Amino acid sequence: MKKITYIDALNEAICEEMARDPNVFIIGEDIDIEGGVWKETKGLKEKFGPARVVGTPISESAFTGIAAGAAMCGLRPIIEFMYMDFSLVALDQLCNQIAKLPLMSGGSVPMPVTVRMCGAGYGTREGAQHSQSLEAFFIHTPGFKVVMPATAQDAKGLMKAAIRDNGPVVFIENRNLYYEKDTIPEDEYLIPIGKADIIQEGTDVSVVSLGYARKKVCDAVKLLPPSISIEIIDLRTADPLDMHTVLASLEKTGKILVVQEAPVKCGAGAEIVRKIIAEGFDYLDCPPIVAGGKNVPVPFSPCLEDSVVLSAEDIAEKITALAEYKI
Question: Do 177 and 64 have their domain in common?
Answer without folding.
Answer: yes
